[in-house]
UniProtKB/TrEMBL annotation:
Protein name, per record: GNAT family protein
Keyword Transferase: yes
Transmembrane segments: none
Source organism of the structure: Nonomuraea ferruginea
Keywords from the UniProt entry: Acyltransferase, Transferase
Gene3D superfamilies: 3.40.630.30
Length: 210
């Protein structure tokens, strides 16, 4: 696969109503760090214990390194690192990572949202846009979301969107001081032939009409 094929559809900015996804920039470092620090208690139970991924430090250096790494992976066709915005405000992050090409064409998604903005449908809207872009523009075939069983909020996001539960991965990641089990959720392109965002719009409309 050529570099052109790997980078198909990137960089990309996607918008649905007040929710947008845009590429992560070095200029986001300060607001990214400040949001993470403010949400430390909200995010800590679900974040990998990885020294290469800054969580709640006060210095900017680790964040600059993290952003530079993600941007390099994006140029290599190995990640799609987006910032989530809501009404133009920085709201969180959604990254399609661990992209495997060849016969797999698969990836994993991770996301987090500012706790002050939770409950507004921002994350499922952002995820639906990202999945559609991956399937119908980038050319991926399968997206996985691996979530701790205790993380009910994150599980509700993927369940609302129709991700299929495929079982438990024992002690998959080191999180919050210990090796933690994760539930694997997944979608393939065949699951959403008309697009995931269309399904999500219909689901939201049905709830609003009740």
């Amino acid at each position: 696969m050529s570099d052109v094929d790997r980078l198909r559809g990137w960089p990309a900015t996607l918008t649905e109503g007040p929710v947008s996804l845009r590429p992560l920039r070095l200029s986001d470092v300060r607001v990214w760090r400040d949001t993470r620090v403010r949400n430390a208690d909200w995010l800590r139970p679900w974040e990998p214990s990885n020294p290469e991924t800054p969580l709640f430090r006060t210095g900017l250096g680790p964040y600059i390194t993290m952003v530079a790494t993600l941007r390099r992976e994006a140029r290599q066709g190995l990640a799609l690192p987006w910032v989530v915005t809501y009404r133009g405000r920085f709201a969180g992050q959604l990254t399609i990572g661990a992209i495997v090409w060849g016969s797999a064409r698969s990836a994993q998604v991770g996301y987090w949202i500012d706790g002050a903005l939770a409950g507004r449908g921002i994350t499922p809207t952002a995820l639906a846009m990202a999945v559609d872009h991956c399937f119908f523009t980038t050319g991926l075939h399968r997206i996985e979301a691996n979530i701790r069983p205790e993380n009910q909020a994150s599980r509700r996001v993927v369940e609302k969107l129709g991700f299929r539960e495929e079982g438990t991965r024992r002690r998959q990641l080191h999180i919050d001081g210990a090796w933690r089990d994760h539930i694997c959720y997944a979608l393939t392109a065949e699951d959403v032939p008309g697009g995931l965002l269309v399904q999500w719009r219909r689901a939201r409309s049905s709830v609003e009409e009740v």
